[in-house]
Amino acid sequence: MSTQNDSVKPRITTLSLLKMKQSGEKFASLTAYDATFAGIMDDAGVEVILVGDSLGMVIQGKETTVPVTMDDMAYHTRLVARACRRALVMADMPFMSFATPEEALRNAARLMQEGGHMVKLEGNSHQAETVHRLTAQGIPVCAHIGLRPQSIHKMGGYIVQGRGIDAARAMIEDARVLEEAGADILLLECVPSELAGEITASARTPVIGIGAGNQCDGQILVLYDMLGITRGRTPKFVKNFLPEGESVAGAIEAFARAVKSVEFPGPEHEFQ
């Protein structure tokens, strides 16, 4: 087991991720919900740890992320932050916690005070005012576009987004507007790989992908999916790294290596 020492690498920041994008170095991201897993990821060199509202499904056993509350997110952010000495800790803004810029500011501040370094919110260009409001107050923001799990009842399910000329143009515009509003990171979920590559190339900010091909600057998976303990249907974009890693720590290290070497995701994990 790793122990604390003076050789701990510097904390990952938004500037670190920007420099990685500019140099062409990929970065790895995973979800965590507790101190033990977060500490293992931190030791393994995972750059971004997301305290995801996916905890509603993988921890609480709910069908969607919609029921997750601010109290849930604050509690799990606090646990994860305690274990992270190097990784950037990003916390999800749960459903309806950012319905107005004022609510968003109050709730984002709470997550930052619990130990988060950045908040993530789902939405397209209509969230530009909220993104601007948060970043103007010194709160880094990741803008999540493409498939937005909090909106699956409106979207009609877990469906690939950005297919077709009009849908692709709309997503490109969403990315542009949110970046101009001050978003520090963009996250693309379930987007055709070619479209994700176009957005990544045109964006000045780093772009994280999940089900968005290997041209994104970083890759994220839900921890439980990456360890092969998914219940129900396994998404196309998921790979189980446990067999090659032989342990939880080994699997996380294997995932990080595969992302950095652009071995993951492969063509079999992409959408066209």
TrEMBL record:
Names of required cofactors: Mg(2+)
Gene Ontology annotations of biological process type: methylation; pantothenate biosynthetic process
Alphabetical keyword list: Cytoplasm, Magnesium, Metal-binding, Methyltransferase, Pantothenate biosynthesis, Transferase
UniProt pathway annotation: Cofactor biosynthesis; (R)-pantothenate biosynthesis; (R)-pantoate from 3-methyl-2-oxobutanoate: step 1/2
Enzyme class per UniProt: transferase
Job of this protein: Catalyzes the reversible reaction in which hydroxymethyl group from 5,10-methylenetetrahydrofolate is transferred onto alpha-ketoisovalerate to form ketopantoate.
NCBIfam families recorded: panB (TIGR00222), PRK00311.1 (NF001452)
Protein name: 3-methyl-2-oxobutanoate hydroxymethyltransferase
Lineage: Bacteria, Pseudomonadati, Pseudomonadota, Gammaproteobacteria, Candidatus Kentrum
